[in-house]
Design brief:
This protein has 160 residues and is an alpha+beta fold. Helix content is 32%, strand content 25%. The mean pLDDT is 95. It comes from Flavobacterium arcticum.
Amino acid sequence: MYVPFDTLPEESRIWIYQSNRKFSDTEIIDIENALKEFVENWAAHGTGLEASFVIKYNRFIILAINQDTQPATGCSIDASVHFIQELENKYDVSLLDKMNVTFKSGEYIAHKSLLDFKKMAKDKAVNADTIVFNNLVNTVGEWQDFWEVPAGESWHSRFF
């Protein structure tokens, strides 16, 4: 069952999928429609999940479930991964590769491999103050407070 993202409690579980490229405005409309349909029908053991999504910066897809009403199960999580894989195929993007770093570079959102980011840190092209997207956050509350953070305050700090 779809609910507005901003109505979910802070403890709601989230999954963040970052694209290796920015989606066009037309793609965003199509993806939002597909997400809404998926979330409307998303269930765990036949019980609808109170769930939502948000797309940020035309690059990040954030899925969320209010686990107080019905927790996610292995099968429901598998269904969401399968759905994300369908988006990858349809739009020729990578959404599941966790070996990449996305960060702010001025007004732009940059996407680099972990190795490239590590080299950039060594070359001082990025530093501990560079805003990174910490996609390891697990709840809406963590996402609100710790998703966009200076690299020195996230797991990225090991590169500085």
